[in-house]
């Protein structure tokens, strides 16, 4: 189980880092900029979570495999960004898997540090979407996750929430994490397929 | 006294969250984006303060009433943003009250954690203006508090500074907090009324 | 030795703060905005480092001389920004010296807090470039350090990396810090003179 989690964690990091690298290449950043954006996208969510729960130094600094994986993804993007952009669909699938894993693992870690189910769910969401927000801010654009995306954060909320509720009810954690991750992934997958979105306020244009 | 502080704290959070929600609606963010911007505006200042003084997990995560209040404000904005925009003047008044409370409470909390009066005043300012900065950065614009606003941060400096000076001189804290909050609010109120502003550097256009 | 380090640290802060102040004046921020941007540029890197290694409250808050130096630089910029802009070349030299000092001192501090050489080098880079990133984000532009600059971050990597490697091999720290700082400064100096840059991904325009 633990090995499977680590493996999925690294896959999530790799795919998140790809999305940062692709954006960096589009903005004509140099090699270093591509690496920074890849790393920031992959580990910012986890670093913010660790700082907020007092788990310093954060896992992303204590364990060199995480950042190395993100840097590898940055180098891959730098050289083969054309291919990655054409692979858009598989990347979206991996990204949904990464989101599901990050939301569930982030919630579980916060619960292990003694936070309430409410706070732990929030930290799961932060773990899942923090990287994408950092990525977009670094190229000075409004984070896409705040705009109309297909239930991105809602999926993270569902995944983390299930783990937190199971914890509050005293249910076993492992199956709750599996169910939470699957539901998060499935919701995001269906939302992309069907174009499900959250509403925008009516008459937002007319001040 | 303590209940009054909590009440004002929640009012401050609610009004700060309204300002974030209104900006989010104007930028056509979806419901989730509105909630995130409302929460970020309301609690970022306090979270940054808590992380910097080592009070983790931050109060905003440990106490679910704070974020719930911010989310409620987000939902209210989402549905009745037109009314809120027309209420601009009352909102500015509440916002000034929130700023005064946050600056004074932030300084007092930092002093309680053993920081110097100098550092505590800075943390009071950060508590007061941090949320507005996060709100503006999330929609990729230069924070208004750094541009020509009517003595926004200066008012926070005065409010927090009085609490810090009273602490350094060994004076009782409660009256200092009341005086600091009143002066901060009064200064901001007069600045809005009279259009008081800080100067801009001369010839800033001619490089 | 310790006095020399403190002196260079303050010089680094002063010069970094100048670069923030100049940018603030150009964006027509008011006096407070100039001070905030000067301080943010000077101390953000160190504050982020201190939060990540658990050294709270951060040195920039605990020691009032650091922020006072940054504010002094902000006031100087506000009044004589025209002169400072004409001094561009000397400022670039001081900035390179500040980068070298910050990268080396940041790495050494992280090592002293028990982090691995890998993580310590990263924290050295963050200490060196974090301020510039915060400065650019606050005026809503993509950080220049991520775009094509003359080996800015690479120089920080070399400086911090030498200190970390020396630590891992058990060599004495003081000479490693001197060599690291000199190499970092020299690399940045030559890169500015000769226009050395990192590559941009080929065909970045053609998606």
Automatic annotation (TrEMBL), chains A, B, C:
Kindly list the places in or outside the cell where this protein is found, as annotated in its UniProt entry. Answer: Cell membrane
**Locate the Glycine transporter domain: which residues?**
7-81, 93-167
Segments spanning the bilayer are 6-25, 32-55, 61-80, 92-112, 118-139, 151-169, 175-192
User: Does the UniProt entry include the keyword Transmembrane?
Assistant: yes
GO-annotated cellular components: plasma membrane
Protein topology in the membrane:
Multi-pass membrane protein
| UniProt keyword annotations, A-Z | Cell membrane, Membrane, Transmembrane, Transmembrane helix
Record keywords: RNA-binding included?
A: no
Record's family? Belongs to the UPF0126 family.
This chain belongs to the protein called: Trimeric intracellular cation channel family protein
């Amino acid at each position: 189980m633990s090995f499977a989690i680590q493996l999925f964690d690294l896959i999530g990091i790799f795919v998140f880092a790809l999305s940062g690298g692709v954006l960096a290449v589009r903005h004509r950043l140099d090699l270093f900029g591509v690496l920074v954006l890849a790393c920031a996208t992959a580990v910012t969510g986890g670093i913010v979570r660790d700082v907020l729960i007092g788990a310093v130094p954060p896992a992303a600094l204590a364990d060199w495999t995480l950042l190395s994986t993100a840097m590898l993804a940055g180098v891959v993007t730098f050289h083969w960004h054309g291919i990655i952009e054409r692979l858009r669909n598989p990347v979206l699938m991996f990204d949904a898997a990464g989101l599901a894993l990050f939301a569930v693992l982030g919630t579980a870690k916060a619960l292990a540090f003694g936070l309430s189910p409410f706070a732990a769910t929030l930290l799961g969401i932060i773990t899942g979407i923090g990287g994408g927000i950092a990525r977009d801010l670094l190229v000075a654009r409004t984070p896409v996750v705040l705009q109309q995306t297909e239930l991105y954060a809602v999926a993270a909320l569902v995944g983390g929430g299930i783990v937190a509720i199971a914890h509050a009810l005293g249910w076993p954690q492992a199956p709750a994490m599996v169910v939470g991750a699957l539901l998060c992934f499935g919701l995001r997958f269906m939302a992309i397929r069907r174009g499900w979105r959250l509403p925008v306020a009516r008459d937002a244009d007319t001040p």
